[in-house]
Specification:
Blueprint: E1 39-40, E2 47-51, E3 66-67, E4 69-71, E5 87-92, H1 100-103, E6 105-106, E7 112-115, E8 118-122, E9 128-133, E10 137-143, E11 151-156, E12 163-172, E13 176-184, E14 194-203, E15 209-214, E16 217-220, E17 224-226, E18 232-238, E19 244-252, H2 256-266, H3 271-286, E20 289-292, H4 296-309, E21 314-315, E22 322-324, E23 330-332, E24 338-339, E25 341-342, H5 343-346, H6 350-357, H7 359-376, E26 382-384, E27 387-388, H8 397-406, H9 412-427, H10 442-448, H11 462-465, H12 467-487, H13 491-498, E28 508-514, E29 517-521, H14 547-550, H15 558-565, H16 568-579, H17 581-584, H18 588-595, H19 623-626, H20 629-640, H21 658-668, E30 670-671, E31 679-682, E32 689-692, E33 700-703, E34 714-720, E35 723-725, E36 729-731, H22 732-736, E37 740-746
Helix pairs in contact: 4-21, 6-7, 7-8, 7-9, 8-12, 9-12, 12-13, 18-20
Region (Disordered): 1-35
GO cellular component, one term: cytosol
GO molecular function: carbohydrate binding; peptide-N4-(N-acetyl-beta-glucosaminyl)asparagine amidase activity
């Protein structure tokens, strides 16, 4: 397939005929990005992908050269080991071991084929493995070398990339294997959350012999086995009359019956037809936000990021609507039930992209959060399948829900039920925190306006250990929820929540100085005294960041924030120091590489921008409130240099598409810097043409003649339709009906967008 032509060819910028050819699923396949290269569909239940290591954040590491097998569940870009369930591995010869370190096979990247919806590899032992997927099934095709004495498929059920606690396997008849496992303990936060997942695998040939194993003991002709201390699985041997074996594997989070049902309902007519269907789905998906212009590297980087942005949340319900709730009971839903909610990450960028492109799916995802609250009793924070992990801090679910409410995606009944759950979450604490920790900082926060710091062991005190950053997160969430309360007509509750919008100011310590600036947020004890080292590059109580990075997490009320900083001009000077603007304007790549935070886990002891992590992702757009939106465009072009079209092309964990969505928005020229507001800020696009095709909506065209990611460019003026547009922001509703947005660009800074600041939340 031909790649898209650069902007100069054929007389101007052209959209790619097939944007899937511009996606490289190997980008981020390392210990920093922790993405996976395998086959999946948008928001699919199944992610069928190779594993080269176990009990690591990334179960596939590009630096390694041995495949342990191909498992059916993966999360894209997480910072803890998890999933990697039901690993299949083709082998030849006698089956003598259950240890993947013994039966794994070497491979070369030159022998891999990676495309959206497809993964193929020719192993060094001569076996060819091909993978594709439907929404709820994984499709395998193994081609064995001629002369093999036997053709086997090994299925590991008990040992995954994450922790497993129970499970078993059953060989059914002469062409089917089924089983289940219980996993959990994600990020070691509660050490209690669990999920169940089931599979049903049907082969296209009958096996001639079989056996099962528990740990290292292999038992021929045994049909059933249970998890021992480490492993359990089955092996199947096929005759050598044919050199090809295919398998269709249905997954379910409800039961083996559900897995069988999903497999039957989505069974493709052939592997090749499944592969083509997955390709066509991804081609259509990537055309929802397509670009033209720039270099091949620009387009590869962009489309690969768009691909990663649309992998999660994942479908959790079976084809008949059954899903396993947070009460560990199987329920039935008329709407698709979704799971895998990394909310602390995705509420800042990825949720907005999904809601823009897929409003119906975003609505179902939001209803799924309501079902979690109804089934389990509380709204989630970081939901892994049917378990609440309680990972991270703050209240990310609230702005995530409010954003979808502000976009008009929720019916009135759903909105009111969700508000009730969010209001409860914002004011109370679960009595039994064994499942949901909730906002454990509420007792002191509701009383005083800040969370009193406590350095106490145990997961029930997560927010009080991160009291500084969690206070800022609570304030943003409460401010967002106040707008929902107003929209629903809850005046008193809206006023209560609105009064909390400025709670970030309670942490402002005017005695702290750093890099020539006075006043920074500082963690407080319940009695109001400061806690820990006052240095805002080192302070205690800020989750994966420092006060220098978290000082910008008050975007709901920039007037109040900038007042604490000494006014917009002083705030702009802080931003200039934060981004190293003098160097950035002369050498953007050097500023990004040398001045900003680098390293996926380099969270602390820093005063500079951290593009690898979430807390300050919105900071480049804070210039819109200081009267210098041109600097946002400069920062984003510097950030673009950190992303490449190589396996090491992600600067940090992608966190279920968060960083990728941030890049997509930054390159397209629109971004919601105030989660929960429904208001986008505009910046200079990096492509000459951008087309947005919301599902069920009208096309939005963005034109920026001469736009390039390779040089600093600024917006001179903007036209929407036939009228000039001087504001640096646009509402979601206005964006949907904009039709055409035209940017005119300059190589020198401009005053566009400076006459008025974007609104407060």
């Amino acid at each position: 397939m031909a790649l898209a032509a650069p902007a100069e060819a054929h007389g101007g910028p052209r959209f790619a005929d097939d944007p899937t050819t511009l996606v490289d699923t190997s980008i981020g396949n390392n210990g920093d990005g922790t993405t996976f290269p395998g086959a999946t569909t948008p928001f699919g239940m199944v992610q069928l992908s190779p594993d080269t290591q176990l009990k690591k954040y990334a179960s596939y590491d590009y630096a390694q050269d041995t495949t342990l097998g191909f498992s059916h569940t993966h999360l894209s870009g997480v910072g803890c080991q998890t999933m990697g369930n039901f690993r299949f591995m083709p082998t030849t010869g006698a089956v003598t071991t259950s240890d993947p370190a013994q039966y794994g096979a070497r491979f070369s990247h030159a022998d891999e084929t990676r495309r959206p919806g497809y993964y193929g590899v020719k192993l060094a032992n001569g076996i060819g493995a091909e993978l594709t997927a439907t929404q709820r099934t994984g499709q395998h095709r193994y081609t064995f070398p001629g002369g093999a004495t036997s053709e086997n498929v090994l299925i590991e059920v008990g040992e995954s990339n994450g922790y497993t606690y129970a499970g078993d396997v059953h060989v059914v008849g002469d062409d089917t294997v089924e089983g289940w496992l219980q996993g959990g303990n994600f990020c070691w936060e509660t050490q209690k959350e669990r999920y169940k997942v089931f599979f049903s695998a049907k082969f296209d040939r009958k096996f001639t012999s079989f056996g099962t194993w528990t740990d290292s003991k292999l038992t021929p002709n045994q049909r059933d086995a249970k998890l021992g201390s480490q492993r359990t699985g089955a092996w199947l041997t096929f005759g050598t009359d044919s050199n090809q074996v295919g398998a269709s594997v249905g997954l379910s989070y409800t039961s083996v019956d559900g897995a069988r049902l999903n497999r039957g309902a989505e069974q493709p007519k052939s592997f090749d037809k499944a592969r083509k269907a997955a390709h066509d789905t991804w081609r259509d998906e990537l055309n929802r936000l397509r670009v033209a212009g720039g270099t091949i590297a620009d387009q590869r980087t962009y489309y690969s990021a768009l691909y990663r942005s649309l992998l999660h949340p994942s479908v959790g319900s079976d084809v008949d609507g059954s899903y396993r709730g947070f009460d560990d009971v199987v329920h039935r839903s008329r709407d698709t039930y979704y799971q895998m909610f990394s909310l602390w990450d995705t509420y800042r960028s990825q949720n907005q992209l999904v809601a823009l492109l897929h409003p119906d799916e975003a609505a179902d995802m939001t209803k799924s959060v309501l079902k979690i609250a109804q089934d389990g009793g509380w709204v989630p924070r970081w939901a892994l399948a049917g378990g609440e992990t309680n990972v991270m801090s703050g209240d990310p679910v609230t702005p995530w829900v409010v954003d979808n409410y502000r976009r008009g995606l929720l019916d009135d009944k759903t909105a009111r039920q969700l508000f009730d759950a969010l209001w409860r979450n914002a004011n109370e604490v679960p009595k039994d925190q064994s499942i949901f920790r909730g906002r454990d900082g509420n007792p002191s926060y509701v009383k005083n306006g800040w969370i009193g710091y406590q350095d106490l062991p145990g997961y029930t005190y997560g927010d009080t250990r991160q009291a500084g950053s969690a206070t800022l997160e609570y304030a943003l969430a409460d401010c967002a929820l106040s707008t929902m309360a107003s929209g629903l007509g809850y005046g008193d509750k809206a006023a209560t929540l609105r009064a909390r919008c400025g709670n970030f100011a309670h942490l402002w310590d005017t005695s702290v100085e750093s890099h020539g600036f006075t006043g920074f947020p500082r963690t407080k004890a319940a009695d109001g005294t400061g806690v820990g080292d006052p240095d805002p590059a080192k302070s205690t109580g800020f989750h994966e960041g420092t006060p220098w990075q978290y000082q910008w997490l008050a975007q709901q009320d920039t007037a109040k924030l900038f007042g604490l900083m000494g006014g917009p001009a002083q705030a702009e000077k802080r931003l200039d120091t934060f981004f190293d603007m003098p160097l950035l304007l002369t050498d953007p790549a050097k500023a990004a590489k040398d001045s900003w935070v680098h390293g996926a886990y380099d969270y602390h002891n820093n005063f500079a921008f951290n593009p690898n992590n979430e807390p300050d992702l919105h900071a480049p757009w804070m210039y819109s409130w200081t009267g210098a939106p041109w600097k946002t465009s400069a920062v984003l072009r510097a950030a673009r240099t950190l992303f490449t079209d190589t396996p090491y092309g992600l600067p940090g964990n992608d966190d279920l598409g968060t960083i990728s969505s941030w890049l997509v928005f930054g390159m397209a020229g629109v971004f919601e810097a105030q989660p929960g507001s429904g208001t986008y800020l505009l910046s200079t696009p990096m492509f000459e043409k951008v087309e947005i095709h919301p599902d069920g909506g009208r096309k939005i065209e963005i034109e920026a003649p001469g736009a390039s990611a390779a040089k600093l460019q600024y917006t001179t003026d903007v036209r929407i339709g036939h009228r000039d547009y001087g504001r640096s922001w646009i509402s979601h509703a206005d964006l949907l009906r904009a039709g055409k947005i035209q940017f005119r660009l300059s190589d020198t800074p401009t005053t566009w967008g400076t006459k008025s600041a974007p609104p407060a939340m």
